[in-house]
Design brief:
Blueprint (H helix, E strand, L loop, with lengths): L1 E2 L10 H9 L14 H6 L12 H18 L2 E3 L11 E5 L9 H17 L4 E5 L12 E3 L2 H9 L10 H9 L7 E6 L7 H7 L5 E6 L7 E6 L5 E6 L7 E7 L5 E8 L4 E3 L3 H6 L2 E4 L8 E3 L8 E5 L11 H9 L4 E5 L1 H5 L5 E4 L7 H12 L3 E5 L2 H6 L6 H5 L10 E2 L10 E2 L19 E2 L1 E2 L12 E4 L5 E8 L2 E6 L15 H13 L9 E2 L1 E5 L5 E2 L8 E2 L15 E3 L6 E3 L16 E3 L8 E2 L1 H22 L5 H18 L18 E3 L4 H21 L8 E3 L11 E5 L8 H12 L3 E5 L12 H11 L8 E3 L26 E4 L12 E4 L3 H5 L16 H20 L9 H8 L17 E2 L2
Parallel strand pairs: 3-4, 3-6, 6-7, 7-32, 15-16, 15-17, 17-18, 18-25, 34-35, 34-36, 36-37, 37-40
Antiparallel strand pairs: 1-2, 2-33, 4-5, 8-9, 9-12, 10-11, 10-13, 13-14, 19-22, 20-21, 23-24, 24-25, 26-29, 27-28, 27-30, 30-31, 38-39, 38-41, 39-40
Helix pairs in contact: 1-3, 3-15, 4-5, 6-7, 17-21
Length: 910
Amino acid sequence: MILLAPFLLLGLLTLPALWWLVRATPPAPQEQSFPSLLILKRLTARREDAARSPLWLLLLRMAAVALVIFGLARPVLTPHQAEAGNGPLTLVLDDGWAAIPHWNERISAALALGETAIRSGQDVTLLHAARAPDGAMPEAFTTHDAHALSEHLSRLRPQPWPTDRQALATLLQHRDLSGQRMMILSDGLATGGDTALHGALAKARSVQDMRWNGCNILRLAASTGQDGALHARVDTLSCPTRTMTLHAANANGGTLAAYPVKTGQDQTISLPPLLRNQLDHLTLEGATGPAAVHLMGQADHRRPVGILQTPGDATPLVGSAFFLNRALQPISDLHSGDATALLGAPLSVLIATDGALSGDQTRTRVLNWVRHGGMLVRFAGPGLAADQAADSDATSDALLPVHLMSGMRQLGGPMSWGKPQTLASFPETSPFSDLTIPPDVTVSRQVLAKPETGLTDHVWAALSDGTPLVTARAEGNGEIVLFHVTASPDWSNVPLSGLFPDMLERLIERSAGVAGGGPSELAPWRILGSDGGLVMPPQAARSIRASDLTHTPVSVSHPAGLYGPAHGTRALNLADTAPQMKEEPLLGTAISPDGAHADRPIGPALMAAGLLLLLLDLVLSLRRRGLLGALAVAGLLLLPMAQSHAQAPASLPATVPQAALETRLAYVLTGHDDIDTVSREGLQGLSDYTTARSSATLGHPDGVTPGKDDLAFYPLLYWPIRPDAQPDAERTKALNAFMDHGGILLIDEQGAGTDTDSGTSSAARAALQRVTDGLVVPPLAKLTEKHVLAHTFYLLHSGFPGRVAGQPVYVARNGDEANDDVSPVIIGNGDWAHAWAVDGSGNHPFAVIPGSEDQRTQAYRFGVNMVLYALTGNYKNDQAQYPEMLRRLGSPDPGAAAASPDSVDEEDAP
């Protein structure tokens, strides 16, 4: 312990004076003559004075004054630290991405070591191992002032790129280290410059290496495997395996899915196509920094591609759609159908095989779509060749990039003098210009373009004789591309070659705004900051050649982040080209950071203790003088305790549930921790939303097991159905009693069979049949906007969505007369809990599908309607006042009010 103001200890010299003053003897009694002893006999002593102060009171006062004096002297408690001797101290701080897990401890250790050296009269120099945002190595900071060191360290932040120990070694070689004590605050991660740094430190007087637990250094890696699926892996040093939670998130931060992943092991990220295209990044729960985030980039999204098919076009090994499906499935989100279905959803590329654009309405709809920015890719065939012999309308001509000659050209075969033609090199302006043409690709038949002025401007691929193979033309804001051959091997072997999917991939990229395969130089758009969020690039950030992106290491010049145009970004991540994580060899004597803690001032605590003793002395003095009764003393001492006890609620017997004292919602426990957590967070979010927007005040939701827990306290019970759910007689009996006494059971299949869980439709339906066998469920009808549930609190006219939109909801057709005609059961597949869920930070951890905050708001409003429907019954459907209301409105048929709106436009449940 040290004193920052030791001269104030001179105040201790006043303690003898205080001792003398307190121990002073009162003046001797004076003699007084009275006329009679009778007067003295009647006198009563009002106060007795002691001859001198008791010893305990004297010690109490001396201790109080001493504590105050010591507090004013500003004592500081310094932890024990191992000293390496005298001499100036140089701190080398690893401040790259690997230092983020223990950054605060690292700064505290640097401050403690620096303050110890400064108290010994030594200078402290601080060096950084990572480059600054401007690309240069930070200048050395030297000081002999502890306050300046503290201010400098408080402003430091870790950098989101690796350390540059080679540059640090070069910097040290130009410094005189002969008399320096070197303290390396290392992150423990090996880099390519470790050997050079070790050599540069050899000339120092002493070198110590302080490290923290390296098992907290995690690095998330992800890549697409040969199976076309996304695989993720969490890399660590040589540490025991542990399980982490990996979140797949969209651009707004909403969780699309969560996966348990073990360190050092691959985890397949399986998402439905719709969610796969919304995937923006992967994050590790409980970890921060750029190493805990893997960006996908917009260029990694699978673009939606539609195929207009004709009957029989998908025949295996024969039909054109068969070969298109094989080529496009690994690289796109593929859809098939007619023009109405395909163009009614977001689409990047529309592919039309021969004969697919035969209807006038289809051609008009497709042409309008192209003019609004779509890309149409057409394939020739006998039908297209025959159409050119007949008169064509303006729409048909607009759907072709060039004018065609009638008929087709045959190369080779018994009726031709020619032979199949190979492909010529692609033009430099073609999106296929960087593709390699296999020498065995040949064309035996094709439709020919009319030789017109400017034809070469529309040719993207040609045969060796110069005739076009692929032509294109802009139409409005979109493009029309024509392959002059079929999509099947009938006219060429292009569909059988590896060139075919590569050409289609280039067209899909072009539809996303990446014309010509993308820009050759990718400028940094946003980078990952030290907290794992996207920030503006630093001053030193430079562009990357598109061809070099996949093997460019992360550095201050090329930080991890998004590169390229904002509408077609490509991602560079820390783990993309990084070597395997290895522990760095020790650079000096290993020391533990346990004792490296900053100084702790204890002056305020000592002063507070002294003042408390003085207050106690005052109370006791008043008591000794008779000015403060014993009860007043006890009341003064017990007042804080009484207040704390008064604020605490009265304890209840363990047998009384909290749901008996406040309104709570409940959910059925499924035995799956992830599902039960979502149910709890979902009902908590709904309870908070309902409390904030209505007069109902709801408490925390409860998880219950029907048959074991009493359900009588809950107005609404949420029951998520899992495919592995099994029947339970006790549960069925309890749920029947719950519904019979006015409770509402909300059954949710959690989006089974939809884009969020496309593979569990039949299993979930079978599980629903199993667990509801024995439940007294009335005949059901599809919920419509005319039902009271659609206007209990909010007026709902656009469906009843949850996390998934467009799913039907079923309620009792007629309701229960004994319970105010309220439907005892609500069944749906909207996955409402995921839409309502709110995590500990107040955020919505799960994205809604197809994705809109308006959809989440509608889900909340439907939930509020359900809660108030369960609490208030069918009062909104009370028809007692309908005839009078209709009479005042002048309705010609007041008797129409007798018809219940719930009985109109209802669709029976399947």
